[in-house]
Amino acid sequence: MYSFNSLFTILCFPFLLLSIFAYDSYTHRARGPCKEMVFYFHDIVYNGENYKNATSAIVGAPEWGNRTIMSSPNNFGDLIVFDDPITIDNNLHSPSIGRAQGMYFYDQKDIFSSWLGFSFVFNNSDYKGSLNFAGHDPLMNKTRDISIIGGTGDFFMARGIATLRTDAFEGSVYFRLHVHVKLYECWKLL
Description:
Largest sheet: 8 strands, antiparallel, barrel
Strand content: over 45%
Mean pLDDT: 83
Number of strands: 9
Distance between the termini: 49 Å
């Protein structure tokens, strides 16, 4: 008749195949994004005179700097926190669909460069929850990619890339970022 090992192999083989296919489909990554969105966020840095409409402030500066004017050279050492409006078009006065909340600091003396850590916190009927971003931002490049490292609500455990492009700026007081979000890992909550 059959030995124990051969019987065990015959009975377990279908389950082994099923687990291999299930594992493969679980770990398979889409070649393209599972979700794409475009947003704008508008940053107005407090400069000592614009308290009423400022959405960010310098909270840390090097010894030679101050907290109302960006430091020289290249804003090096400045730490800024922000609570900026997010819109779906490039108009600052468009209805806000959420807030970009977080911080950035300028991290190089010889070129404009920063490190970002922030969340998009959505508060509208189209999106609920948040997306979390972190990464190096070489500001002199036309486009820059930073990591999407998680999310909540509609963006539960999201992973992906956000391509940033400085869309407009006015000196060191105002800038607008075009943010192209590409999610490569999307989950649906039941």
